[in-house]
Specification:
Length: about 500
């Protein structure tokens, strides 16, 4: 059988079952025409990726298909979130006359160029001469962080400590990529989700995307077979790494890394805590939770587990009946934890949890050393950081040949200082405060709107916790700014409904 065909058959079989089961639930949040079109686009892009010998043939199919889909979709952000992880991030150099390459191209940038930019252009055409086009504090903070990243050149960690020099071309490249990868994501989500219906549809689309990945992840763990590894091997000659922990394969699905998959599933679980209240039957409400948690267990990562639990408790604490919901959440988590501990997989789970009797593994020891060294370097350059910080941490280089900066806050502070860390965190903190005020203000008169705000706040706080144990890359880097956009859109709804 040709390379990739067996994996394609398995992925399409899992997706067919998932889409079929999810259709009735998805139609609670979107029209049947939009759901059918998005599903068909997902299937075509998946098949094209598995059957294409290189990225460019895939792009030849993807670009016109995405342009066609976004022109007809009533909610481009829902389309974007459903396709966000349709295939793994595989970077391919975009050639350019007069230089080695213009920039790297992957699925995320294809979606930004072919979905988000047309969506923003359509929004702008419909909002002429209105105040909603004006930038506010969040925009300026994000743009300020982009300016800092553009001006500060961080040399890549190349073998033999070769230091590349910066250039005007490279400065323009960094500015362009920050706009495409970061600011555009926030800007499009905030402006193109103007009401409750659009927000709910976007959340539901992301939950469906993660349900597809959770099904694939469960299969990967059970069969010890990474379904998307062959695509990377054919396109760039480097397959996705088979990561084992405790003798168990850590699932990846189409996320690109186990940790990324876990964080995405934790956020989807948080979204579903609110969406399930709008689903009339009990079966899909329970089935989605079970599927997402099977995917979470398949990634075998502590950070996403803790993040999902924090999201659950935070959502319960922000509900209209907070004491009862919080006590109920505590009982449910205790029962599930006890069931997992006594189950056949209990030993594998507790083995990586030191507070439950597991042994402290290499990752925990490495992160402790990294934290101490990072803090010492941050104190030496506290304001604007040290672009060469990684070259002063040679003793922390791992067997894979990299220095794994597994804490987003430490990574930002190392390279951009406390000024950069402030610019990085401020947008999220500001929208959290705005959303919390609106959610508490409508708690007594619109419980569903308050619950939506509690869901978004819980996911944001869970994300802020989870990035303490990872770098901000891959799909959850996009979701970090998607969450800022969703919270800003939610708060904007509250501002628009305030009496003048």
């Amino acid at each position: 059988m040709p390379d990739g065909l067996k994996e394609l058959v398995v992925v399409l079989a899992i997706a067919t079952v998932a889409f079929g089961f999810a259709k009735s639930t998805a139609l609670q949040f979107s029209s049947e025409v939009d759901f059918t079109r998005r599903r068909n686009v997902w299937f075509i892009l998946t098949a094209a990726a598995f059957l294409s010998p290189n990225f460019w043939l895939f792009a030849l199919v993807a670009v016109p298909l995405l342009v066609f889909a976004v022109r007809r979709d009533t909610n481009p952000i829902a389309l974007y979130l459903l396709l966000l992880n349709v295939i793994p991030e595989i970077e391919v150099d975009l050639p350019m006359v007069g230089m080695r390459y213009l920039f790297e191209l992957d699925i995320y940038r294809l979606l930004s160029l072919c979905v988000l930019i047309p969506a923003v252009w359509r929004w702008r055409s419909s909002q002429r001469e209105t105040r909603s086009q004006r930038l506010d504090l969040i925009d300026y903070l994000l743009l300020g962080f982009g300016v800092l990243q553009t001006l500060v050149f961080i040399p890549p960690d190349l073998p033999h400590h070769v230091l590349l020099q910066d250039s005007p071309t490279n400065i323009l490249r960094r500015a362009c990529l920050y706009f495409i990868d970061t600011y555009l994501v926030y800007f499009a989500v905030r402006r193109c989700c103007p009401d409750r219906r659009a927000l709910l549809e976007a959340l539901a689309a992301f939950c469906l995307s993660c349900a597809l990945m959770a099904g694939a992840a469960t299969f990967e763990t059970l069969r010890h077979w990474l379904l998307y590894a062959d695509i990377s091997a054919r396109w760039i000659g480097s397959a996705i790494f088979y990561d084992m922990r405790g003798g168990q394969l850590r699932a990846v699905a189409s996320s690109g890394a186990p940790l990324a998959l876990g964080y995405l599933l934790a956020i989807a679980f948080g979204f579903w805590l609110h969406l399930r209240s709008r689903v009339p039957t009990a079966l899909p409400r329970i089935a989605v939770v079970l599927l997402l948690w099977l995917g979470l267990l398949s990634v075998y990562s502590r950070g996403p587990w803790f993040g999902a639990v924090v999201i659950y408790f935070t959502f319960s604490a922000l509900s209209s009946s907070a004491p009862f919901r919080f006590f109920k959440a505590l009982c449910i988590v205790s029962i599930i934890t006890a069931a997992i501990v006594i189950s056949p997989i209990g030993e594998r789970i507790t083995r990586v949890l030191p507070f439950m009797g597991g042994q402290t593994d290499y990752n925990i020891t490495y992160r402790e050393r990294l934290a101490l060294r990072s803090w010492a370097l941050i104190k030496q350059h506290p304001l604007l950081g040290d672009p060469l910080a990684v070259f002063r941490m040679e003793d922390l280089r791992q067997g894979q040949g990299i220095i794994d900066l597994v804490n987003t806050y430490a990574e930002v502070a190392l390279f951009y200082g406390l000024i950069g860390l402030t610019l990085f965190l401020s947008p999220m903190l500001v929208v959290l405060l705005r959303a919390y005020r609106f959610a508490q203000g409508v708690l007594g008169r619109d419980s569903e709107m308050a619950s939506l705000g509690g869901c978004l706040i819980a996911c944001a706080l869970g994300t802020l916790l989870m990035i303490t144990s990872s770098s901000l890359v891959l799909g959850y880097q996009k979701m970090f700014y998607v969450l800022i956009g969703l919270l800003a859109a939610y708060a904007q709804i509250g501002k628009a409904t305030e009496p003048r």
